[in-house]
Write a structure and sequence with these properties.
The protein is an alpha/beta fold. It contains 9 helices and 8 strands. The protein has helices at about 5-20, 55-65, 75-80, 85-90, 110-130, 150-155, 175-180, 205-220, 230, and strands at about 40-50, 70-75, 95-100, 135, 160, 165, 190-195, 225. It comes from Falsiroseomonas frigidaquae.
Length: about 230
């Protein structure tokens, strides 16, 4: 009977595909998980799922106080509703990048045409608002598809994931989020937070707004300068 061998091959195929779609995986092609400049005392701050009319302006204010720079991976549909926020992000020295048009949960399972639509529509929306086309793309939930690389190549985009994240969309304890972001933190790390879909603490306040000042202070204490991806990734 060949069934055991066939089932084993199917299981291996699914395991390989799952591993290749992992947010930090590189099996399917280039994936920026750390900054490319060796030895630089810099980390990249990245914020996903915005812009949010309540949270994003407060994040920008906190970054201003620390003289920090960041990259905002925005959802195209939200950007279209809040164009002034995108222009404000750029005006304050940060960059706006592509996080798909609608952030579908099924993004990694979609076909080539659907992937191209999600990426290109967001690219057009962002460029139309800011006058500058994004250079980087982060997949919804970080999950990539075997079909994604040619889509990104057609738009001149580079795939970015992260070195570490705090799960600040679901965790309610700011200290726990902060520990996840700072444990083992070092030069060239790419940090993931969220100004959109921000989780709330026990008081109902966005967790990211409690975490960010402490994170920026920790970076300063370690001699690490927060930068945007455009500052260091050619």
């Amino acid at each position: 009977m060949l069934w055991p061998q066939i089932l084993a091959l199917i299981a291996l195929n699914h395991a390989t595909l799952t591993a290749s779609m992992h947010p930090r995986g590189r099996f399917l092609g280039p994936n920026l998980v750390r900054l490319p400049i060796a030895g630089a005392a810099q980390v990249a701050l990245t914020f996903d799922d915005g812009p949010d009319p309540v949270v994003t302006p407060r994040v920008l204010d906190l970054l201003d106080v620390a003289q920090a720079r960041a990259s905002f991976f925005v959802i195209g549909a939200r950007a279209a509703r809040h164009p002034a926020l995108l222009r404000e992000i750029l005006a304050r020295g940060h960059t706006v990048e592509n996080h798909s048009q609608t952030h579908p949960a099924s993004f990694a399972a979609r076909g080539l045409w659907a992937l191209r639509r999600e990426v290109s529509q967001a690219q057009d929306v962002i460029a139309g608002i800011t006058g500058t086309a994004p250079r980087f793309f982060r997949a919804p939930m970080g999950l990539r598809s075997p079909l994604l690389d040619p889509v990104l190549a057609g738009q001149g985009l580079r795939l970015v994931s992260w070195t570490r994240r705090g799960y600040d969309t679901s965790r309610r304890d700011p200290q726990r989020v902060l520990r996840s972001l700072t444990r083992g933190l070092g030069p060239r790390d790419i940090l993931l937070l969220h100004d959109g879909n921000a989780g709330r603490d026990e008081r109902g306040d966005p967790v990211v707004l409690s975490v960010l000042p402490a994170l920026l202070a920790a970076l300063q204490a370690d001699g690490l300068r927060p930068v945007s991806l455009a500052d260091v990734a050619a």
